[in-house]
Hints:
single chain, alpha+beta, Sulfite Reductase Hemoprotein, domain 2, Sulfite Reductase Hemoprotein, domain 1, 4 domains, 6-stranded mixed sheet
Amino acid sequence: MYRYDEFDHQLVADRVSQFRGQVERRVSGALTEDQFKPLRLMNGVYLQLHAYMLRVAIPYGTLRSEQMRMLAHIARKYDRGYSHFTTRQNIQYNWPALDKIPDLLDELATVEMHAIQTSGNCIRNVTSDQYAGAIADEVEDPRIISEIIRQWSTFHPEFTYLPRKFKIAVTGHENDRAAIKLHDIGIVVKQNSAGEIGYEVHVGGGQGRTPFVAKKMTDFVPKEKLLAYLEAVMRVYNMLGRRDNSYKARIKILVHETGQEEMQRLVEAEFAKIDASEMLTVPQEEIDRISAYFAPPAFETLPAESETFTQAQAADADFARFVRANVVAHKQAGYAIVNISLKPIGGVPGDATDTQMDVIADLAENHSLDEVRVTHEQNLVLPHVKLDDVKAVYDALAAHELATANLGLISDQIACPGLDYCNLANARSIPLAQEISERFADLDRQYDIGELKIKISGCINACGHHHVGHIGILGVDKKGTEFYQISLGGAADENAAIGQITGRAFTEEDIVDAIETVVTTYTDLRADGERFIDTYNRLGMAPFKERLYD
Length: 550
C-alpha cells in the first residue's frame, strides 16, 4: 500500500490549517453560507437536509487496519456511532459538528487520510477493482496507475475549477468490477503483443439526468504516456465543457454532442502537443517507485486445499452458505478473498457501526495481511485470508451481524441516502431497500433467484446507480407524493448498459409488490442456468411490462 512522503504530510497539514481558518470565519459569521460553500466543498463538506456531511477519501478503496480503526474512532467521537461507505469507495459521516471538522481532519491526517477532492468540480477519488492484487488473471495491479493518477490530479491547478465533477476508474481484469464504462474516464490495463503494459481508455460515461456508456477513445496508451493522454482529455473538456448549464456540463454531454470520432480527433491533437513537450512523460524510476508500494505481500507457501476449511463447511451449513456467496478464489494457493456484506436483512445498505469497523480492523490485522478494501457496491473485502482462517473470520463477522451470505443476490442492494438525509431527493431510498430485503429475506429463495442487482436512487442524480441496476428504482415526486419508477436491463460490468424504463411509476405502497412481480416473471420464464440479466436480454421488456401493468 502507498505511504505518505514528507510532501504528502505537509500538503494535508497545510490544507487542514487553511480550512480551520475558513470554518472559524463561517462560525463567527464573517463568511456567509454562499461564500463558505466553495471552500467547504473543496474539503469534502456538504450541507445536507439536516446537517453538514463529511466525505472522506479512500483512494482506490484500500485501507490499512489502523486507518479503519481511525474511521471507527471518528464515528464514535464526532458522529453518532456509525458511518456510510459510498459508491466511490469513500466513507461519509452524516452528523459531524462544523466547528469540530478541522479537529476531525487533523486526526485523520495522523493515519494518512484526508477529505480533499471528495466533492466539488474537480477530479474526484480514483476508484478501482476491490480485488486488485488478489485475483488471478490480472494484467497488472490497477492500484499502481491509480496512485499515479491520484498524485497527478491532486490540486492540479489547471483542473481546480472544472465545468463539473470528474470521475476516473481503473480495472486490471477482464471482469470489470469498477464500472469503468460509467465514468468520465474509464481505464483498462492492457498488455500488447510485445508484452508491454498500457491502457485502453474510455471517455464520456456517466449517469444522472442523461446517462451514457463511455466511448472508447484509444486501444492502447503506453504506460509512461498515460498522464499526457489524460491531461489531453481534461484540457478538451475544460475548454469546451458547457459552463452555461450545470446539467449539460459533464464530459458525457460533450462526447455525445461532439461525436466519438471528432472527440478522438480533438484529444489526439491535444495529446500530440503535450507528448511533444515531454513534460508529462512518467519516468520509469517513478513508475518503479510507486509499483514497489504495491508489491505482493508476504504470502506463506501453503497447499492449495485446506482440510480445516473443507471440514468446517461440512460441519456448519451457515458457514457453507457464506463460502458459497461471499468467498472468492485467490491467486495465491492457500488463500481466499473474503467479502463482507454491509447489507444485512432489514439494514441500511453501506452502513457500519464503530464497533463493526473495529472488528473488521482487527480481522484485517490478524488475518488479511493488514488490508481492507471498499467496493463501489458498498461492501467491504478482506483480500488475503488463509483458507485455514476463513472459519475464524466468519465466526467473528457473524458475532457482529457482518456475515450475511448475500453477495450479488437480490438483498445486496445499492441505495443512496435518499430523502432521509439528502435535500435533493424526491423519495426515500433506505426504507425501500429495507422493505425489499425483508420481502426476499429467505436465503434459499435468494439463491434460487441467483445474481440480481437492485440499485435505488432517491432522485435523478443517480447516486444509487439505478440506471445500471438489473432492476433500477428511481424515486420521483408527484404533487408532493413519493413514487418509484422501475427500469430493467442495466449493467455496470464489462457489458455495461443503461436500463430501460418499464412505464408509469408505482406508489410507495405498490413498489415492493411490483419488484416481486418482476422477479417472479423472471423465475417463470428463465431458461436453465440463466441469470436475470440473461433472461431480460433474451426476452426483452415485453413480458415484464405485460405483467407489471396487466
